[in-house]
Specification:
Blueprint (H helix, E strand, L loop, with lengths): L10 H12 L6 H11 L3 H5 L7 H13 L3 H26 L1
Helix pairs in contact: 1-2
């Protein structure tokens, strides 16, 4: 992972980021929020890959994708989504059999 700190990042913030990225130790919520603020992301985005139940974040991302689409593009997204869901269901069913 490459970290790029903004000029406004303090030494403390940079240290927290370095420590968090180089160890498996637990960090405080305050440190996590500070890191997210320095990186300009939400805590949700920061821990997204380690969250077991990421549904709210996924729903927000999907909503952001479809919000900027016109009617035609939205119709295509719906059709593709249906196709993908059908394929996933068929795959899951065949794995269970």
């Amino acid at each position: 992972m490459t970290l790029i700190l903004t000029p406004s990042a303090s030494i403390t913030e940079a240290t927290e980021i370095a420590e968090a990225s180089s160890s498996a130790a637990r960090i405080s919520l305050t440190a996590l929020v500070n890191i997210a603020n320095v990186l300009g992301v939400s805590v949700d985005n920061l821990i997204y890959d380690s969250v077991v139940h990421a549904r709210p974040q996924l729903e927000r991302e999907i909503q952001q994708i479809v919000d900027s689409r016109d009617d035609y593009e939205l119709r295509v997204v719906k059709e593709v989504t249906h196709s993908v869901v059908d394929a996933l269901r068929a795959t899951n069913k065949s794995r269970q059999d």
